Automatic annotation (TrEMBL):
SMART domains per the UniProt record, alphabetical: FBD (SM00579)
PANTHER family membership: F-BOX/RNI SUPERFAMILY PROTEIN-RELATED, FBD DOMAIN-CONTAINING PROTEIN
InterPro entries for this protein: F-box-like_dom_sf, F-box_AtFBL13-like, F-box_dom, FBD, FBL13/AtMIF1-like, LRR_dom_sf, LRR_FXL15/At3g58940/PEG3-like
Top-level taxon in the UniProt lineage: Eukaryota
SUPFAM superfamilies: F-box domain (SSF81383), RNI-like (SSF52047)
Gene3D superfamilies, per database record: Ribonuclease Inhibitor
Designated name of the protein: FBD-associated F-box protein At5g53635
Coiled coil (UniProt feature): none
Pfam families: F-box, FBD, LRR_At5g56370
Amino acid sequence: MDCNLELGIGLESQRKRPFLQNDGKEKEIVEQMDIISDLPDHLIARALSFLETDEAVRTCVLSSRWRYLWKGIGRICLRGFDFDPDIFSNLVEHVLKSCNSANFLAFELFCPLLIDVSRLNSWIASIKSCKIEKLTIHANNTDDYILPESPLPQCILSYNTLVYLNLDCFDIQIPESVVSFPCLKSLNLQVIFPDSEDAVNRLLSCCPVLEKLYLLGFIDYPEGLKINISVSTLRRLSLRLVNTESSYEEEHDIIINTPNLEYLSVDDDSFSKYVVKDVSRVSNVFVNYEAIWLDDLVPKYIHHLLDLLKGIATTELLTLHWSTIDVLGSALSYAWPAFPHLTTLIMQLNLYSGWTCFSKLLHSTPKLAFFILDLEGINDSDNRPSDDDLYQWTPPDKVPNCLLENLEIIGIQCFKGNEDEVQVVEYLLNNSHVLKSMMIGYDPDSASEEVREKLLMFPRASKTCDVEIYERVMYKEQDPTTSHNDIILWGV
């Protein structure tokens, strides 16, 4: 195998030692010490396991000692999306043949298109005797279209040591006989519905300690689905349903019964009906409920979204994608759920809903303390609706309670200085009585210096409020893997 040196390993330290000169005086010289070379072989092999496998193989040219060290790795990870299928297959088989398979704890393959399924099956079968903890197989993956699913190698169902399982585009068949993944904590599935409906439901019932689930389902036939996600141990759930058909004739039911769930992400353009039975511990929710054509919205679909929001109303952090706001913009005459515990709201506005939902959401969140407003979508003037007067800012008749009592931090992204944006900033500053900080991401190419000075001069209801203007305002969760919902907000 051609091993070109592309990996530099130079973890060296300096060691001083005395040197006796001709005049009898000692002089210190610096000697380079290679720390890695002093490590035993098994520790070096373990370190190499954290590299991509092709990078680990390249270390064979470093020295005669390093020629075989890579063969002791405990993790195979090969990414071959851009490879020729035969070249990639030969590489996988070379690595499997050369390595000590008894060491394998993780096997991760990202296969190119048109991979030979029979060879793929043989690779998975060859590590059956190992105590694999992490198995990732991405096959037939493309962003342009959906390829037919490959049959899932049945030997995977007997891997009872798995902790992480990631499967992409497989035809999953779960037998009626008892199958169990007693150690599985993280499951990542990409499937095609309705063919995989029963298999997914049965698979979830076989995971008694599952904590994290990501399910991407392509709906390629307008047949009603019923997905039952009833996992008592589940802590994080990310669900994405993609309707590849243009029909919405059949209704899809998604049951979520997860009493220990802490994080929920719903990304859906299928108008599914969500039956949320128990998510009392959920504290962080992301909702992207999309209507590809707003003309397709009927009261039934609007109620589906409102029912979903009602089911997660106890959350503390809520992110509403602009497409969700679009649907809510058609629901102004409906009864909205209140969010009595919500302290952090991230809202992305879009030009097709404009400011219609802004006031109503603030009235629905009395405990709101941290508010991020993303204006990127609302400033697309080239595609603004002809009746845009309906979407402009109108101050609410009554000041929302959150402004009077709790709102402390406001971050505004993609501010361009339009009249309605300026009016919103003025309103928030005039009515937020406990506000501590407002950070505005200001586009200098779109808004004048005069507008900037105007923002800084607005009167403020809070005497302790600082207004800071940056070219960009950004945010992120401090640690999205935990139940804490702390958000970091900064400007550059």
